[in-house]
Amino acid sequence: MGQSERGIDDMGGLQSGGGTSAVAASAHAGCERFRLTDPFITGRTRKALAAYIGHPDISAGIPEARWMRAMTFEALVHSERFVTELLTKTVGQLGLPRPKAVRRRDCHGVIDTTAKELAQAHLKANFSGEATMLTALAVPYLKLEDVPGATAVQPDFAIVCPRLADDDRIIGSWLIVGDAKDYERIRSRIDDGRMLKGFLQVALGAESAAAWSMLPNGMQVHRYGALAVPRNAFLQPEAVVELLDDHRDEVRTRADERLAVKSTLGDSAPAEDELVTYVARLEATFDPGSCVTCNLFSCCREELRAADDPLALLTEIGVDRLTRPAVVGLVSGTGQIGEVPSSTIAQVTATVTGLPQWIGRSRTDPCGLPGSINLVLVKSDAAALGVHGVALQGVGADGPGAWVRRTFSEPQSPFTRRAMMRLLGRAIRELHEAGLGPVHLVVPDRPTADLLATAADSLAGVELSRLRWQHDLDSGRPALTFDGEPATLPDPLDTDERVAVSFLLEEDRARAMSLRTPIVDLRSVLASHVVPGGPAVDTGRLDYLVTWAEATDPLDHRKVSDDIAERPETPGSRLSNSASDAIHRALREGRELTAYDALVQDALDYRIEVLGRALAVLERLDASRLRQVHRELEGDAQEVWGRRLALQASDLVRFSRTYPNWRNIQVVMLDADRRCFDQLTCLADASAARDKATDAGVRELALATVIDLDPVRLDVRSRRLVDGSRVVALHINGRSLVEEPTTTVKTQKGSFKLGQLPVATLREVRGVEGLLWEPTVAPRLAVGDELVLADTAWFGKPLRSGHEVAVSRPSLDNQSAPKNTCTASTYASDPEGHRWCCRPHTVAEAEWSDLLAQRRERGELNPEVWPPLVDEERFDVGPGTDAPEPPPAPAPDTLTIDDLD
Predict the structure, then answer these.
(1) Is residue 704 domain-shared with residue 788, that is, in the same domain?
(2) Which stretch of DSSP H or E encloses residue 712?
(3) What angle do CA 44, 47, 53 make, to 5 degrees?
(4) Less CB within 10 Å around the terminal CB: N or C of the chain?
(5) Region label for 225, one of left (φ > 0), alpha (ψ between -120 and 50) or beta (otherwise)
(6) Based on the number of CB atoms within 10 Å of its own CB, is 171 exposed (0-12), middle (13-18) or buried (19 or more)?
(7) How far apart are the first and last CA of the chain?
(8) Quick one: 577 and 680 in the same domain?
(9) In which element (H, E) is residue 857 found?
(10) Which parts of this chain are annotated as the region Disordered (predicted)?
């Protein structure tokens, strides 16, 4: 949970605010209004302050299920089951000696108790060589030790261990400060920004402890700190360490700033009648994307809404500070526009006019086509991979089928994830076997895709562990986890589960590829065609985007934003706070499964409705002539996936387990993929092509204006496309030439050839303005027309026809995947020759199991080895965590989701 997640009273004492007030650890640290309205300065929480000044916060709370998950993880960190592991791995990663014994003590969140326990731990380290994990500490806030009633910093845990001299004599002890954070792993990793915030909070505890006069003589605060984070979906804690020097400098600077402001105000906080004026004087760095989790969000937004200033409107909708002067003319009515991305111009225009701005590109997405699967799900806040319900609809040759729904009474159970995979795997297998082309999973937003891929990653890790352990048992060895504990052998994945896991891991490995679309984010697809008004962050919700896309009459962007935000249902995987609490309580209170099922069904109904409306909007748009090109590229890649699945070779290789040689091979493929994607995008999307053409760092594209027709002469705005450059026109006045009926698209083995395009060499004629351009296929032009030109060298060698360019097809993985000549018997007949293409997982994991057994016999694995090894795969399944379920309780009213994330 962490020192920043403790509640703060509004009554009594000087409120230093605990870790929350170390605003360096906050997402809002750059905002003066946030920094200077913490409880230490104002004498009340920001939530209470917002209510007092007339703008109560109703959006920044924490769902009860999410809070209980945080409490459960904190209990695990404090439990005897994981104390030894966390302590030894933290100490070991820091290169410190192995302790002779391990002990745990609880400080109960009391400063005096913390001082006593630190003294005892220091003595144990000095005279017995023992290491102690202290939990629930309380340390006086930095530089406020002598201030009566100041609230304390409360680190979740700290480790006290022996400190040695160069000759290995014990000369004192180290204090290693730590915090517990139940961060969700998304696709096997934790977001770096979250880890940064966590270590900033650790740094506050370390800096406060270093300045505390009660720190025992001879105890030093270590330069490194620790975060206990979930190793995997089973909430098993794992220790991560990081150097705190820079973080401690930052929290020290913020603490000094707060003290300086406090000193100017005197001993007392601003009087109640001065609070409104005081807050108004503080400059707010408003960002509708990040500020929504601040208690003062409504206050700052209403302030901007009430301002009669064009720049205030631009700030409200999230236009970048440096970009605002370039588009302020669209709001003020002058019409003057600087050089800014077309998407920003469209956003401001939509906001001012109330009408959506259509980009005008044709569709290349596979949504609604045979072979696609529409899927929505309802995520549980009680677990990183928890799912309340799922619904999917396959699209066959005869069109969309019926929606198939499932609700789960145990959202966080591994069996729920497997049931979801069986449902999805059956649908994928049936469409794949029907031969309708590549299979695409269409989801309403990226978090839905992330949850599915992360669940597949977890199940793949469990299955690979099972294969190793089964080989251990078959070889007469005990099945042991990475840390040497008895393993619990799970059931193998069945056929449909394996299909789904394999397909989702294919998407996970391919996410670095721009052209690959096993999972299609419907929100992103729709956003590539229409730009709504209002805050750009609101387009992250599919229902907001659909509302604008369906509009025929002007909309008030503020009313739309407020209406969408107040809805109890959401279109993506994550629930609103109110819906999350209602579903969580229905499941918990007396196991009211009928009420629970009804709430989950309502949530699924809303998601299905929004997804259907989005598909209906897309159906009204024209299909691009390059749509089939994209389908063929994905189809080629899925043929390779089909071979992986059929031979069960590398189909369960997770993104985090791709070996170095495989990754090196991917570099060339990634370059080719990016080049092909850029070319296809610039051919089909006039806005994207124009933005690239105006980018000074792009060499291949340029804008040109027609200045004469007989012959055609162009004013080319480029220092690279000059006399002698051979160029092709991609767009004329925003009209894509590849979509013209006269343009030919021919599929070849190594490329896609586009013909009947205007291609010619630019020629300079002495004494004549502009550059002469006389293409064989002459387009219809008028003086003043704007063209987007591309250097034909970008597409490769010039073609003889004089009117064609070719887009090269990226090569497929033919070295780390089964080849089309591989069969079920080829590896057995030639193991060395097929080691990297079609070696089955059973063989690969058996070899790894034998290697681990040899290392364990030599004493090279945990728990014998020091320092302890860290399991980089992080998906071992050992004994159950036996996590105690905390008593039902809402999160403290003083906290926001920022305090957890």
Answers:
(1) yes
(2) strand 712-717
(3) 80
(4) C
(5) beta
(6) middle
(7) 10
(8) no
(9) helix 841-857
(10) 559-578, 808-834, 862-901
36 and 91 inside one domain = no
- CB under 8 Å to 809, separation ≥6 — which residues? 633, 636, 676, 749, 750, 751, 752
- Is residue 160 domain-shared with residue 179, that is, in the same domain? yes
The H or E element containing residue 314 is helix 310-316
What is the DSSP secondary structure assignment for residue 480, as one 8-state letter? B
- Evaluate the omega torsion of the peptide bond into residue 863 and state whether it is cis, within 30 degrees of 0: yes
Task: Return phi, psi of residue 521, to 5°.
Answer: -85, 105
Q: pLDDT digit string (tens) for 370-398?
A: 999 999 999 999 888 999 999 999 999 99
In this prediction, residue 18 has a pLDDT band, given cuts at 50, 70 and 90, of very low
Which pLDDT band, with edges at 50, 70 and 90, does 668 fall under?
confident
Q: Are 93 and 328 in contact (CB under 8 A)?
A: no
Listed residues 593, 611, 639: the one ending a domain? 593
DSSP-based three-state secondary structure for 469: helix
Backbone angles phi, psi at 380, to 5 degrees: -90, 135
Q: What percent of the chain has pLDDT over 70?
A: 94
CA distance 849 to 475: 10
> With DSSP H G I counted as helix, E B as strand and the rest as coil, what are the percentages for the chain, rounded to 5?
45, 15, 40
Query: How is residue 531 written in tokens?
Result: 């730009």
Residues 224 and 247 reside in one and the same domain:
yes
**Residue 709 gets which letter from DSSP?**
E
Closest CA to 571 of 606, 521, 620, 519: 606
In a domain, 83, yes or no: yes
- DSSP-derived secondary structure letter, 810: P
**Pair 164, 50 in one domain:** no
Q: What is the gyration radius of the CA atoms in the chain, in angstroms?
A: 31
d(CA 229, CA 210): 24
Query: How many structural domains are present in the chain?
Result: 4
In this structure, the number of other CB atoms found within 10 A of the CB of residue 575 comes to 26
Domain assignment of residue 90, given as a range: 64-251
Confirm if 418 and 406 have CB atoms less than 8 A apart.
no
The answer to whether residues 700 and 733 belong to one domain is: yes
- Angstrom distance (rounded) from CA 27 to CA 202: 16
Amino acid (one-letter) located at 624: S
With CA atoms as reference, report the closest residue to 405 among 417, 413, 393.
393
Q: Report which residue type is found at 326.
A: A
With respect to residue 686, please indicate whether it lies within any of the assigned structural domains.
yes
Buried b (16+ CB within 10 A) or exposed e, 823-846: eeebbeeeeeebebbbbbbebbbb
Domain's final residue, options 808, 842, 864: 808
* pLDDT mean over 598-623: 97
Q: What is the pTM of this model?
A: 0.91
Burial 867-890 (b: 16+ CB within 10 A, else e): bbbebeebbbbbeebebeeeeeee
Q: Is residue 857 part of a domain?
A: no
Instruction: For residues 151 and 56, state if they share a domain.
Output: no
Distance between CA atoms of 432 and 424, rounded to whole angstroms?
12
CA angle 296, 569, 197 (to 5 degrees): 40
Collect all residues with Cβ–Cβ distance below 8 Å to 245 and sequence separation of at least 6. 223
Taking only the tens place, the pLDDT of each residue in 256-313 is 887 887 777 666 667 777 888 888 888 888 988 888 888 888 889 999 999 989 999 9
Tokens describing residue 866: 């020091």
653: left (phi over 0), alpha (psi -120 to 50) or beta: beta
In one-letter notation, the amino acid at residue 289 is G
For residue 200, is it left (φ>0), alpha (ψ between -120 and 50) or beta? alpha
Query: Which residues, other chains included, contact 705 with Cβ-Cβ below 8 Å and sequence gap of 6+?
Result: 714, 715, 717, 784, 785, 786, 787
The CA angle 784-789-790, to the nearest 5 degrees, is 180
Query: How far is the CA of 855 from the CAs of 849, 858, 867, in angstroms?
Result: 10, 5, 15
Residue 837 in domain = no
